[in-house]
Amino acid sequence: MKLNIAILTVSDTRTRANDKSGDYLQTAADKAGHQVVARQIVADELYVLRAAVSTWIADSGIDVILTTGGTGFAERDVTPEAIQILFDKAIVGFGEVFRQISYDEIGSATVQSRALAGVANNTLIFCMPGSTGACRTAWEKIIVEQLDASFRPCNFTGMIKQGHAK
């Protein structure tokens, strides 16, 4: 099942020219057979971030939103506060499993990750840290399987807006 994916990089400093995490996610989604239909970079501003994601949630042509950045504890890190309120249902296990896997990679620093995921208007949303390594961990060890309709015993493709995934 080919899914339409939007990628949002949350950063005060990244540009399209140096957005390595966004580039990784785009390449990984393409390799998995999905289509990246939107990509944007926004500053760590609560309402700007919320507006961008809300627009994509309302867009019937977007099945999955991947965000990278803004999930730490720095004062400017507001992704969880901006996005969590938009969820119809939180996918609590995503953050739990991400931190479990990350512990083996970066040790106790993983407690500073506030990675999260949820569903809003039948659109899947995965919020990952800004590092390319964290995006790779989340994609390769969790997300890619959950976006694969053939993955068993279960996957998230049944939650996608009906008629939009091909």
TrEMBL record:
Family: Belongs to the MoaB/Mog family.
Protein name per UniProt: Molybdenum cofactor biosynthesis protein B
NCBIfam families: moaB_proteo, molyb_syn
InterPro entries in the record: MoaB (IPR012245), MoaB/Mog-like_dom_sf (IPR036425), MoaB/Mog_dom (IPR001453), MoaB_proteobac (IPR013484), MoCF_biosynth_CS (IPR008284)
Pfam family, one: MoCF_biosynth
Domain MoaB/Mog: 6-150
Function: May be involved in the biosynthesis of molybdopterin.
Keyword line: Molybdenum cofactor biosynthesis
Pathway the protein contributes to: Cofactor biosynthesis; molybdopterin biosynthesis
Gene that encodes the chain: moaB
UniProt entry tagged with the keyword Cytoplasm: no
Entry annotated with the keyword Transport: no
